[in-house]
## 1
Amino acid sequence: MKTRTAACAALLALTATLTACSGGDDAKADPAACKTAMRKQLKDAIDAGATATPGTHPSQCDAIATKTLEKYAGELMADQVGAAVNSALPEAITTTGVSPECRAWIEGELRSTGGGVDATEGVKVCGNLPEDELNQAIEDVTNSLLTATPTP
């Protein structure tokens, strides 16, 4: 929800940048300074969240054509949305402590029982893995089996 509110506020801030008059002479403009000003305005709007006010047209963007400003706004929003999505995703759990023998045992269990794994038997093969690591290994092997290409 916070990401959605921040994105709306950010769009509101960037809209002012796009709707203000621009000279349209990109040759006389400083695109880097304009984009930096727009990035700061976007960051400020995201930080303010629902209390963000509409942004103003940065003076650094005065000589930038409207189409170019639209391009910059799209790039900046794509960066922010990507960052927000990435920060919301859970971190991947790696199972580096799981031996190939353990993985083979899990696969055998999944194939022979139709999807069930008796973890108490796995202690002999997999050792005393923490439960979350063993569960992740079972999930990894299951996904691997589900996505494997069948051989004719």
Note: The radius of gyration is 26 Å.
## 2
Amino acid sequence: MLSSLFLVLTNCKEDEECTDIELAFTSLEAAYGCTNTPFQMNIDLKEDFTIISTQETFDTLITGSCTPEIDFDTYDLIIGKKTLPNGVAGIAYDVVQDCTDESIALTVIVTTDDTEIAPNITYHVLVNKLEFDETVNVEVTVN
């Protein structure tokens, strides 16, 4: 009887659907007053991203008009580059923690316009300090 009850309880847990958790994030514009970071901030990457966890690394890798003193005790900076076929109308972000493996998924949605400019933009989010071994996946979608 006890083993039957245990099996029922364990099976119920396995049948429950997990739900991804939307994570809070901010930007250098919102937190530090930077402007036009897709074009005014640069990092030497091509179609890739990195995570910056210290001011020293930020100061070494980032150039441009946006170089604030970031609170790296609170935040990590996920930053990357993307080459576009047209100009930029807007950029939206979504940051989610996957419920199955607890990895972080950053989705960057770039909306282009009809201009014939083909920029290489910088995208970024400031997220709460990541765990040392936390996996981050970035997907950039261009519409």
Note: The longest strand covers residues 88-97.
